[in-house]
Structure formats: structure tokens, C-alpha cells
């Protein structure tokens, strides 16, 4: 199978994005953050004046959704058409509406196809793909499938430390609300059969990267 796929799922604030990116760099693999695509679609819908609750209008946005992303873990930028949205899609406003967009089945089907084509086009020997449904839906046949978890308390405090200037309590409540909404659509809190759980509650960043790489090396 080519490229070698490392599938990583986990809840918001588990650190899966930064950990997956570091793992990709160490292994010389590509990196794909699937949450960025759902965020970019939420951004595109807002830019077009579409209410994120309005599923039919969100679906109609897919036709003009020109999503561009590279898989180089070192120079990661996200574009919609000619607009660089890398920073804009991290805005708390986008975080608060992205679940509404991601729950629409037509959106998921469309983006899953897109992810599979990006994976198939990868030129490096492997690719680390992270999200909520990678181990179960996007790449269930991946040779390495990992669920990255951490206690809720640790996830909240890591995210609060990232977002200096934001109210930590409000951020925590937003994170919990997003996990609740997302887990109605895909189960990323229980490991599916054959999925290895990496619990980072007691690990620092480098130790978590090492733990994920150890899982990859045990397979490859
Ligand atoms: O990973 P991140 O927090 O950036 O994901 C943003 C949102 O995209 C999630 O809250 C979820 O609604 C959606 N998502 C998804 N399936 C994925 C990745 C993300 O539904 N594989």
C-alpha cells in the first residue's frame, strides 16, 4: 500500500494536530489536517452570507468550494481560492459554527472523497492524517491507526495556554460543546477495533510524539 498511512483521531484539544505534524516531520511523511477543511468550508459559507444552520445552502456552497492545501508539514498553508485562510479558520467564531457544517452528510461525503484523493496523490513515502473519523471512515485500512486522548482537564488547560488573551473558562465551555456536538456525528471517544490508544495525559509534547512514533515503528 502506498503511501503508508498513519491515521490519528481524537477530541478537540488533544494536541493531535501539533503532534501529528511533528510526527510527519520526523518521519519525512506528508501531513493532512482534515479539520482544516471543515473549518475552511465554514469560512467559505460565512463569506458567502450562508447561515451555517441552513444545511441546503451549505450543501450548495460545496460547488464553489475551491479548497487548496499542501501536505508539507513544514510549510502548512490553507487556501480557499486565492485567499489564505490559515489564520482565519482558527478564529473562535469559526470554531463555534464548524460542527453545524460538519454534521451535514453531503458535506462529509464530499470532503472524505477529497481527503482520499489528497492521500492517493502523496509523493512522500507516507502521510499522517488527523481528524475525528480517519481510523474509522476515511482510512479504515490504514496500517497504523491511533486514538490520541488526554483527560478533559489537561485538554482544557493546554488549549487555554495556547489561546492567551481568551477567557479560559469560556474556551473550555466551547471545547466541551464542540465535542458534544461532534460526537453525535462520529465516535472519536472510543477506540474502534484494532485502534491503538495513546493517552497523553501524563506525557509532555515530545513524549507524546515519541509514543506515536513507537506505534508506527512497531508496525512498519
Ligand atoms: O480538528 P479541528 O478541531 O480543527 O476540527 C474542526 C471541526 O471539524 C471539528 O470540531 C469537527 O466538527 C470537524 N471535523 C470532522 N471530522 C474530521 C475532522 C474535523 O467532523 N475528521
Automatic annotation (TrEMBL):
Keywords: ATP-binding, Cytoplasm, Kinase, Nucleotide-binding, Transferase. ATP binds at residues 10-18. Its EC number is 2.7.4.25. Transmembrane segments: none annotated. Residues 6-217 form the Cytidylate kinase domain. Its main location: cytoplasm. The keyword Nucleotide-binding applies. Pfam families: Cytidylate_kin (PF02224). CDD domains: CMPK. It is found in: Cytoplasm. InterPro entries: Cytidylate_kin, Cytidylate_kinase_dom, P-loop_NTPase. One of its GO terms (molecular function) is kinase activity. It catalyses: CMP + ATP = CDP + ADP; dCMP + ATP = dCDP + ADP. It is an enzyme of class 2 (transferase). Belongs to the cytidylate kinase family. Type 1 subfamily. This is Cytidylate kinase. It comes from Agromyces lapidis. The lineage of its organism: Bacteria, Bacillati, Actinomycetota, Actinomycetes, Micrococcales. The gene is cmk.
Amino acid at each position: 500500500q502506498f503511501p503508508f498511512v498513519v491515521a490519528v483521531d481524537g477530541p478537540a484539544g488533544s494536541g493531535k494536530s501539533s503532534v501529528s505534524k511533528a510526527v510527519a516531520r520526523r518521519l519525512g511523511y506528508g501531513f493532512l489536517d482534515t479539520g482544516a477543511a471543515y473549518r475552511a468550508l465554514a469560512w467559505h459559507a460565512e463569506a458567502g452570507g450562508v447561515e451555517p444552520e441552513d444545511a441546503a445552502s451549505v450543501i450548495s456552497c460545496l460547488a464553489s468550494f475551491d479548497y487548496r492545501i499542501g501536505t508539507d508539514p513544514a510549510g502548512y498553508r490553507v487556501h480557499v481560492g486565492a485567499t489564505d485562510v490559515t489564520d482565519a479558520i482558527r478564529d473562535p467564531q469559526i470554531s463555534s459554527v464548524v460542527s453545524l457544517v460538519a454534521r451535514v452528510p453531503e458535506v462529509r461525503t464530499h470532503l472524505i472523497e477529497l481527503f482520499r484523493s489528497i492521500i492517493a496523490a502523496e509523493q512522500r513515502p507516507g502521510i499522517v492524517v488527523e481528524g475525528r473519523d480517519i481510523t474509522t471512515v476515511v482510512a479504515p485500512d490504514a496500517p497504523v491507526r491511533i486514538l490520541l486522548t488526554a483527560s478533559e482537564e489537561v485538554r482544557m488547560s493546554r488549549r487555554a495556554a495556547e489561546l492567551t488573551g481568551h477567557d479560559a473558562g469560556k474556551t473550555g465551555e466551547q471545547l466541551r460543546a464542540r465535542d458534544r456536538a461532534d460526537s453525535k456525528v462520529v465516535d472519536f471517544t472510543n477506540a474502534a477495533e484494532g485502534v491503538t490508544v495513546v493517552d497523553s495525559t501524563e506525557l509532555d509534547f515530545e513524549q507524546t510524539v515519541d509514543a506515536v512514533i513507537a506505534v508506527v515503528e512497531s508496525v512498519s
